[in-house]
């Protein structure tokens, strides 16, 4: 492969790279793919690759889900105190 003078991140990541990219181990990454928190991979001939942009979108959605969960817990605590 010829050296490329431009520096840019790869768009397609293997399983281990995708897991590392979002900050989890491969086993946790597999769980997150299975339950839909992370995207399913694409097939490129015999290779399985994850789209970095799709990983970014799913990772962003995780923080939004956590914020929603935090809000629900906070509301639940207020209701419990009133009752």
Q: What this model shows, in words?
A:
With 83 residues, the protein is of the alpha+beta class. 58% of the residues lie in helices and 12% in strands. It has one domain. The chain has helices at residues 15-22, 26-34, 52-82; strands spanning 12-13, 42-44, 47-51. It has a three-stranded antiparallel beta sheet. A hairpin with a 2-residue loop joins strand 2 and strand 3 (47-51). The N and C termini lie far apart (68 Å). The model has no long low-confidence stretch (mean pLDDT 86).
Nearest-integer average pLDDT: 86
The major β-sheet equals:
3 strands, antiparallel
> Compute the gyration radius: what is it?
18 Å
Helical run tally: 3
**Main structural class:** alpha+beta
Q: What is the share of helical residues?
A: 55-70%
Q: How are strands sequenced across the largest beta sheet? A: 1-3-2
Unreliable stretches covering 5 or more consecutive residues: none
Percent of residues in β-strands: 5-15%
> What sort of overall outline do the alpha carbons produce when their principal axes are compared?
elongated
Number of individual domains:
1
End-to-end gap: 68 Å
H/E order of the elements?
EHHEEH
Q: How many DSSP E strands? A: 3
Layout: helices, strands, pairs:
Blueprint (H helix, E strand, L loop, with lengths): L11 E2 L1 H8 L3 H9 L7 E3 L2 E5 H31 L1
Antiparallel strand pairs: 1-3, 2-3
Helix pairs in contact: 1-2
């Amino acid at each position: 492969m010829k050296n490329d003078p431009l520096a840019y991140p790869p768009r397609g990541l293997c399983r281990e790279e995708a897991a590392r990219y979002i900050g989890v181990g491969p086993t946790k990454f597999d769980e997150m793919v299975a339950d839909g928190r992370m995207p399913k991979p694409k097939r490129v001939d015999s290779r399985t690759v994850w789209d970095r942009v799709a990983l970014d979108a799913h990772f962003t959605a995780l923080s939004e889900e956590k914020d929603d969960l935090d809000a629900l817990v906070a509301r639940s605590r207020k209701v419990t105190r009133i009752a």
